[in-house]
User: Fold these one by one.
Assistant:
Number 1:
Amino acid sequence: MFNDFLFLFVVFFLLSIFVMVGVAFLTLLERSVLGYIHIRKGPNSVGFLGLLQPFSDVVKLFVSEQCFPYVSNYLPYYFAPVFGLFLSLIIWLVIPYFGGFFSFDLGLLFFLCCTSLGVYSLMVAGWSSNSNYSLLGCMRAVAQSISYEVSLALILLSFVFLVCGYNLVSFFYFQFYVWLVFFSLPLVLVWFVSCLAETNRTPFDFAEGESELVSGFNVEYSSGGFALIFLAEYASILFMSVLFCVMFLGCDLYSFFFFLSVSFVSFLFVWVRGTLPRFRYDSLMYMSWSSFLPVSLNYLIFVLGVSLFFYSLF
């Protein structure tokens, strides 16, 4: 049993290292793509084609002086970024690796629990900073994440009825012949937009509204604390890209095409950021409760009816 625990610890440590390296190059991809969208040059000086730029940024952030606001609540302020990064890393355990790692029978429920807990790290970070701007940012983040988690949960419930299980391995067997993206195209678009809102990305970056909140919930963070928040956000983006491909694009983690699909979905996150302006806050809430919720509910009822019909036949 000790050897098993040691093996799982080593594998999770290696997984965390690889996720951090993936996040580093995701930031490089984002800055390069945004450079081309803005018709300017992105990072291209540090290393060959700017490949060492993310690592130089990490060194710069972590060796900078850490500042603490005098009126902040020290312990929540200090540990909120650590808790957020921990949640962003532990959520990677639900991906079906087919290699003797973890296999969750209730993986989708674990995913929903981790995404719901991620709201608390934003809320505590904004509240403990004791700043009006950070408090406004965290309140926006909480309302936004709760609103879009409803549509995410209903979409997941539709596919739970379809594949008859909460384990993500079921998506691999169910998509052996044809991908789910061809059967649920409107729902795929709703899922992608909900992922944008869930990860606080443009055009739903109200928690980090630079134009009116000076940086939102992380306005008082510098150096290491800001780096941990940054890593947590981009690890969540990378995970949502992988989960999108697992649910809709085949789930074959040992094919090269799967990783091309993950790269393309991550590119879509960046493309949306370079293309669309920020929503108004009332438009965000209106779209969640008046558009996405009825669509996901209707699709849930439709999938449930189709599933019951075919199970009654066979």
Number 2:
Amino acid sequence: MPGLGVLVVLSLSLNLHTCLGFPSQLVNLDKELGGGGNSSQGAHGCGMCEPDLCPETRGCRAGLVPDACGCCMECGNVEGQACDPGNRSVYYGLCGTGLRCQADPRPAGGGEDEEEEEVCVCDEQEAVCGSDGTTYMNMCQFREAAFSKAQLRTRGRGPCTAVPVIKVPPQSQMNGTGSRLVFLCEVFAFPMALVEWRKVGRDVILPGDDPHISVQSRGGPLRFELSSWLQIEGAVLEDAGTYRCIARNTVGFVSASAVLGVLGAEDLSSFLANRDPERKLSDYNQNFY
């Protein structure tokens, strides 16, 4: 069939002419015909790889990783950032140096049917003491800090030995008699700190023998942290005063204070009316802990 042969030759000529005008189509045609070509990922529409045209990368705190086409380098994702598993960037990108992509280790906020998000997690979870006296929770956090601090070095494995630091101090508050009051104090320390509560003017560690005052402590919310609560049930006028949270370890101690005001029903109503006329007494009696 001579006519059919002419049509095939004419069709190939037209395709070749079109591909010469559009190089990316030539690469795709080459792949369709079984050729290797010089394209990174034809499925992503990457086209020819020209390293000289790759964009400049700056401020990559987690180092460099290959882009979706495997031609250029881009910033790697940092700890806690969403990521693509495997060694190919598809949507979120690849994790940077010393990080791996896995299911988010933090507690999920949704129900059982909620899909687990994959995030970048540091391979080395041991704490590191920096030459700046700061404790970094893992090596990846240290690397991020060292990116902007050229002189930063590791002083040793494990947290820095230092005087405790009060991360969340107790807050001053005002409330009425009979109310339930809570002071919170969060402390970071290594070696671990012992936290105690005192009321200024009383030479006793609370709760002492006072049945309506209690103290509770537990580890967290983060590593090397301790949270302590002072709770007053059924407050009376005599409970007013200044309360101190004191944290001690073998290196030293630190303290933070808060003032408690306790008013009778009439005085409290007058106080609230002058401070915020639209706020009700019940708004100040809520238990936030």
Number 3:
Amino acid sequence: SFYKKYSCNYIHMDNISFNSSSMLSLEKLNIPPNVVYPAFFLGLLNYCIIVLCNSIILLTIARDKNLYQPMYILFFNMPVNDLIGATAFLPQLMKEILLDSRSISYPACVTQAFFVHLYAVGSVLILTAMAYDRYVAICLPLMYNSIMTNSYLMKMIILLWSVDFILITVLLSLVVRLPRCRSLISNIYCDNPSLVALVCSDTSINNIYGLFLTAVVQALALGSVLYTYMQILYTCLRNKHSDARSKAVQTCTTHLVSFVILEITSFYKILSYRFEKTPSYISKVVGVLVLTFPPTLNPIIYGLKIKEIRTRIPLIFRRKVAHI
């Protein structure tokens, strides 16, 4: 009896070990054959726009010393983060569309999930840091240079990325430690909820930590942005100088648009995991929008709305042409 029990446990563990190294299947895209190539080129075009626009913003800030200011240095992190999110998703999706392959290895799936969540949490933290910067600049202008020093700014950026990295590492470490007995990813890309759904043991700790992470990040972001913008609005209404007021409103509107777009798409995606009655096609569309919409719009919004960036983008290209 003992031998049989031991043998059964050994076989069970062996199957789990086998599953851990096997390929996973992503949810089908259901793209008609005549739409495959248009869908591929649409995805390729979108990725090229994201890479080009975000790279231009990065190059403009990096090469123009007039933009070496806290506001733009903080904003520099946004295109980097957007490129992480888009690169984690779009190349894999285009490959799957073109080759009609919905399989992915478990390590590749975990890697994709890591960068997808790194992008999602990073977006919220970066926008929160930018809101704080605008609050100090508009509400405490005389103290701005003494507060937003280079050392303080670097500490803020290092802390931002460190917290993001640690939170997501813990999130996925809790998943990969558990045995799996399923191989179908119920999503068009890999993320933490999809990986948790593969597990055949107790996932209470994963669910608690996932809810904790979502609640803390969202509460921090919404609370900080609401507080800072209420203070900014109050300061702008008190300011008698119309030029300073309009400049403050213009800068803050740009930031607020990016924040609202991110929150709307992210909030719906979070809710779709909690309510099973959500139509799958809507969940798929929103999932794609979370990873493609902000990275596409952010450089365009900031590049067009912020005068300092908009006027310096052509200068970068003129310098390159002059050097040639």
Number 4:
Amino acid sequence: MAIRAKTNNLIQIRPLTGRRLANSEHNRQEMKNGATVLTSKPQRLVFELTNACNLNCLMCGRNSATFELTRFNSEWFKKFEPIMSDIEEVTLMGWGEPTIHPQFKEMLQYLHERGIRKYFCTNGMRLDVLKDAIFDYEVDVFAVSMDGADAKTNEFLRRGLNYQKVIEGLKAITNEKALRGLNFPHINFVMTMMKSNIRQLPDMVDLAAELGLNEVKGVFLTAFSENLLEETLFDDMDLVRYCFGQAEERAAKLGILLKLPHQRGEDPAGDAAHKPCFTAWRDFFLGSDGYVRACMSSPEKLFHIDQYPDFESMWNSREYQEWRAQVNVPGKMCPSCGRCYQSSFANWNKEHAFIQIDTEFSPKWEK
């Protein structure tokens, strides 16, 4: 059976320190209570290292957005130094390809030296040059975006991808992991499911098992432009149901963790705008242009990192307090939350989760 319920717990690869365990439990309690001023720290920092990419995928929202290319300033790490012993994880991902940041390896080293769990999401094109760093700095989790189980499908959808290069990079890492007898890195595929490729979902499970990966995660395509409307699965739940069933059978047989969204009409969010959102409590998201947002799928800018002198003043700023007070309240949440398409919190009963044409769906990144 696939996992469909998002939890407020992050994936655990290795034991946490007592301090981090205590903070995370405190954070979950404040989240449950709906506190707007928090005495806990976030469980996770999410840093978008760049909005640039070395691919040009057909379905990417970057093709429907206008923006300046931006890059994360490593000096911003200094503002987070006082909480590095409290947080569980730093996730390096956003609207671009994080591994092309020129200081990516140095960032992994910095986090490793502070004993923080490290997670990044990548298109896989630089895995060959990152292999040593992944083991030297003990990367805990990484995800590889892959939208089919063969070269033809991937190289059509993910323009600029060299499928064989990604596969060889993954094999080298999983072979090294097995040789060392390690349980990390936890590696998963992330597949954007659409009419063109969803029949390959079961084969993605097979491919993950063949390569020694741990998990396959499927997310529905959200169409940001008219040319993608025919690819959305909003009106094709029979096909979705069949492919999900086949993938679940193979995952159970092969021991692959499978994470899938709720099908339309079966999402427990019912008629709500989105599932209960906890990103404004659990996570702290910083974009590559220095603007803090509640999550990577929100265009709403809370403030620039330079607006406040330290983390504590940012975390309990007026903007964050207002966001926490409104994000789950019908009639009070901001318009972009009212049409949420974030893969973990979207209500898949709603058309707006699948279609975001002529909406403000992405940030306006500024240099």
